[in-house]
TrEMBL record:
Lineage summary: Bacteria, Pseudomonadati, Pseudomonadota, Alphaproteobacteria, Hyphomicrobiales
Protein name per its UniProtKB record: AraC family transcriptional regulator
Pfam families: AraC_N, HTH_18
InterPro entries for this protein: Homeodomain-like_sf, HTH_AraC, Tscrpt_reg_HTH_AraC_N
Residue span, HTH araC/xylS-type domain: 186-284
Gene3D superfamilies: Homeodomain-like (1.10.10.60)
Superkingdom field: Bacteria
Amino acid sequence: MSELDKIRAMAVRHAGRQSPQLPRLFAYTLDHTTEIDPLIYDPAASLVIQGTQRMFIGDKMFEYGPGQSMIVAAEIAALGQICEASEDQPFLAVGLFLDPALLSDLVLEMVAIPELPIESGYGVSTASASLLGAWGRLLELLDRPTEIPVMAQSLEHELMFRLLMGPHGGLLRQIAGSDSRLMHIRKAMAWIRDHYTERLNFKAVAALAGMSVSVFYDRFKAVAAVSPLQYQKYIRLHEARRRMIANQVSAAEVGFAVGYESASQFSREYKRLFGAPPGQDTERAKAGLGGFNPPRSLGARPDVA
């Protein structure tokens, strides 16, 4: 039995069940394909075991399937789709939300490596045999919960070490560094998420990141694959959708509440992102027809609080 087959068997047993002792570790399965749906990713590492997922980030599109690993190092806005899944061969993946403090401790133990230029806030690559082994050993703890208090930290360290030594280790080193370029961009992203209803002041947000406006704009787009203004728009629309589904408020009311000055502009941009006008989309979502909203196990959170 291959290492991926062993991981598949464990992931099937634990899919959809969260361990309170390993709250950042998840397994996820879906037995059908999905429509393209907007997502917001949190920093995480994931591994696809079976099936295929398609991602659209900015103007880039890529697919990743069995044995491929994805690292997301910032709160990325994206479009996602499960494009290969069935009842006989469901989509199956595992994921781990990243702990910056753990990464920092680990990086300090490694030989100093110069900070690399930011190319993007995410990366996909084929998992090596050593990385698959590390994933497998961490997942085995779900079958042996009594070992979690003793073994979990060292096995997570092993997984992070293998990722740090892989093709996208530079992304993880950026997360580990509190004064890294990526962390400055993430600080700006957090400010935009916290103040999404306000008019975006480029000069103020660039100053928060410690950069000139032009440098900030270029680096933000390099990480997020969208401009700061597009990122804010994405956050506003996600929050509007969440409020309408949860609270049954009208589109006009929620559009103004999340920062839009024009109801028609809100409706137009909402339809462009979600594929249907606000009322129609939220009715579909309430009926369970609103597309793919993966859980945090894949590094994605469907709603923005």
